[in-house]
Specification:
680 residues, binds adenosine-5'-diphosphate, binds magnesium ion, seven-stranded parallel beta sheet, alpha/beta, 25 helices, 22 strands
Length: 680
């Protein structure tokens, strides 16, 4: 049977698709026949009802059978050609812009009876149809129902229907890949039949049907199989065990002024087990902002160093690389040499750093992603840590894992806590460690919302906090005023606050160069300033335990998870954290909801879940940035039950099915990441 090749064929090869149409579709990311299947009908036009002219309804698409009476072809530019028509109840004009006489004479021959269809207008007491598209001598030929599709800008409804109908007709009957038990859950409706139903106007919007769910399940299962295979192939990679006695890490823990949380202890254990095993670690460490992931990563690094390997710690920004480097310098035993290597490092020091990495006298290096393009940098790299990476796709992760070489263990850290089903969907290729409890000394951050016109009260409050010795973040959505006037700008805010607060205010944003940024941040850390005005540049990871208040201007402009991340910048020390969400009047319902959720909970899991309900999971998890595929139909929130069934099924497949060739077609069709080449 086979036949999936047709589905993967380029749209260029399809009847009715010329270069122009192909280009329009490609712009919408539709490249193959298979891609076309997921552009769903949104509505339909019913042309089946023949009406008389005196029954026509203005503004509707209707079908009438008319008698062609007379041509009116004005030989003046810009005036349309007209064909006067009638039936036994009234008159109707067909209007043609940009059409040749010859064409009109052909489609509407004089004195013939023709069935036409189009949108009805009324002009100078007469009915009109402009550029009628469906014309036929034979009453029965006009297809009754025409679907209306999205993403068809520039392509006529008639043409698009012609294309899609042809494809539906040629659909191959693919061999069933679902196991009998699963297929039974969907009434044994096969793939082909499901697609046919998907494009049937009767089923538009019917997502609670067996056929629809079957198609959803196919998507989930295929992605789980891809993950499972990737995971297995990584697991197969053999490495040298890392041998250590926890000497350095224990020494460091003992010097902390705090105890590790239970989750920190457990996750550290999980990582240690992986490090000392014979297979390569490929693990994600998940935990809410401020849950103490960085500490766990650093402690595990010490074990790797003890075992004689080097470590690379990558951060998304130079500010964070700096911060992590400084933290390590503070807590690591003195005899361990570490270094910081960023784009800003001077070339002389760079040479020295690289020299020391190559001869392995430097044990650990901190930096941004550029670090990992230079694997030749190391003598014996054994561990790569990547912070705040949730914008990586599965393909990028795989290539990362390949890059370090087989002896290199990999730990990703993510501060976007997500429910388990979702974790399977996004990080199914990795092992999972979760920190769910926060350090005990943390108090919940208290969140307020205030209208902008309350600024006086807010300034009084800020002054009080400063008098107590506390520090404040003041976040604005824009750097300067140039673009949107209704948004607060950081520069303006800085100028006005700096006057009010006696030059004890600093500002950072992305246009300030890194050296200066670091000086400013250091100054803030050392309490040279009371207020730090910034853009969302502080969103990820920045750790200033003494800052306990964050004020967010135009807070309605930010997403829920982003606000939670920003808020997580405070309340890291012993002082009560406070967050003030500022807004102008007229909040949308959605913005009100976001504020309410933030006021009600500090739990990152709850917040990301709510965020996904409001925005869809692809946006929250940054699929857009990663270029990873989004599902066409499946949604982890809506179809949670199907994800759970698929999770069980993949575990069963992993155990019971050694030969996966049965799933070959499924994977060939659905795996856009294209990372599994052979399933046998
Ligand atoms: P994350 O990386 O998860 O956002 P960090 O590791 O940066 O969190 O930790 C946030 C802050 O909490 C840091 O100042 C860190 O020193 C502190 N911290 C970490 N673990 C603990 C703990 N067990 N008890 C108290 N404070 C902790
Ligand atoms: Mg962090």
């Amino acid at each position: 049977m086979g036949g999936y090749e047709y589905l993967l064929s380029n749209i260029n090869n399809i009847d009715g698709i010329g270069t122009k149409t192909a280009k329009l579709l490609q712009k919408k990311n539709i490249n193959t026949v298979f891609d076309l299947l997921w552009n769903l009908p949104q509505n339909f036009t019913d042309r089946s009802n023949l009406v008389k002219i005196n029954e026509l309804q203005i503004g509707k698409i209707q079908t009438v059978r008319i008698h062609v009476k007379k041509y009116n072809f004005p030989r003046i530019r810009n005036l349309p050609n007209k064909v006067l028509c009638e039936d036994d109840t009234g008159k109707l004009d067909c209007i043609f812009f940009n059409s040749y006489e010859g064409y009109i004479r052909k489609i509407l021959p004089l004195n013939e009876k023709i069935t036409i269809s189009g949108k009805i207008n009324y002009y100078k007491k007469k009915y009109q149809i402009t550029n009628p598209t469906y014309l036929s001598k034979d009453k029965s030929v006009i297809k009754k129902i025409h679907n209306k599709y999205n993403l068809t800008e520039g392509i006529t409804e008639k043409k698009y229907n012609f294309i899609i109908n042809q494809i539906i007709e040629k659909l191959p009957d693919l061999k069933e890949w679902l196991s009998p038990r699963i297929a039974n859950l969907f009434n044994n409706i096969r793939w082909k039949e499901s697609i046919v139903k998907l494009h049937d106007y009767n089923n538009i919007g019917k997502h609670n049907t067996k056929f629809f769910k079957r198609l959803v399940f196919d998507e989930i299962l295929s992605s789980f199989i891809v993950f499972s295979e990737t995971r297995k192939s990584i697991k197969k990679i053999k490495k040298n065990k890392k041998i250590f006695s926890n000497k350095y890490s224990n020494e460091t823990i003992n010097n902390f002024g705090f105890n590790l949380t239970k989750d920190q202890i457990n996750t550290l254990k999980e990582i240690n087990v992986d490090l000392s095993s014979k297979s390569k670690m490929f693990r994600i460490l998940q935990g809410d902002v401020g849950s103490g992931k960085t500490i766990v990563a650093l402690l595990s690094s010490l074990n790797v160093i003890e075992s004689g390997y080097q470590v690379a710690f990558m951060s998304p920004t130079e500010i964070l690389a700096n911060q992590h480097y400084n933290l390590a310098k503070k807590i690591f035993p003195n005899e361990i040499n570490i270094d910081l290597l960023t784009g800003k490092t001077e070339s002389v020091s760079k040479k020295i750093i690289i020299f020391n990495l190559k001869n392995s006298s430097t044990k650990m290096v901190f930096g941004t992603h550029s670090l990992f393009q230079k694997k030749t940098l190391f003598k014996k790299l054994g561990y790569i840590i990547i912070d705040e990476q949730h914008k990586f796709g599965v393909k990028q992760r795989k290539s990362l894992s390949d890059k370090g070489g087989s002896n290199c263990d990999i730990l990703l850290m993510s501060a976007t806590p997500i429910p388990r089903t979702l974790t399977m969907t996004i990080y199914g290729d990795m092992d999972l460690s979760v920190i769910s409890e926060k350090p005990k000394n943390r108090k919940e951050i208290i969140t307020y919302s205030k209208r902008e016109d309350n600024i006086k009260d807010i300034l009084t409050f800020v002054k009080k906090e400063i008098d107590k010795g506390n520090q404040i973040f003041w976040v604005c959505p824009l750097i300067d005023d140039s673009k949107k006037i209704d948004h607060q700008s950081a520069i303006k805010k800085f100028n006005s606050l700096n006057k009010l607060f006696h030059s004890r205010v600093a500002i950072i944003h992305s246009k300030i160069d890194n050296d200066k940024k670091n000086i400013i941040l250091k100054g803030f850390l050392n309490k040279k300033f009371d207020i730090l005005v910034s853009t969302t540049i502080i969103e990820v990871g920045i750790d200033f335990p003494n800052a306990n208040v964050i004020i967010i201007e135009n807070s309605n402009k930010f997403g829920l998870s982003q606000l939670h991340q920003l808020r997580g910048r405070v309340g890291r020390g012993v002082n009560q954290g406070k967050c003030i969400l500022m807004f102008k009047n007229n909040l949308s319902e959605n913005a009100k909801k976001r504020i309410k959720i933030l006021k009600n909970t500090n739990n990152g899991f709850v917040i990301s879940n709510e965020d996904m309900k409001l925005r869809g999971f692809g946006d929250v998890l940054g699929f857009k940035q990663s270029g990873d595929k989004k599902f066409n139909l499946a949604d982890p929130i809506i179809h949670e039950d199907l994800f759970k069934i698929a999770e069980k099924e993949i575990r069963r497949i992993e155990i019971e099915e050694t030969n996966l060739s049965k799933y070959k077609t499924l994977i060939k069709l659905y795996d856009k990441a294209d990372i599994i080449y052979d399933l046998v």
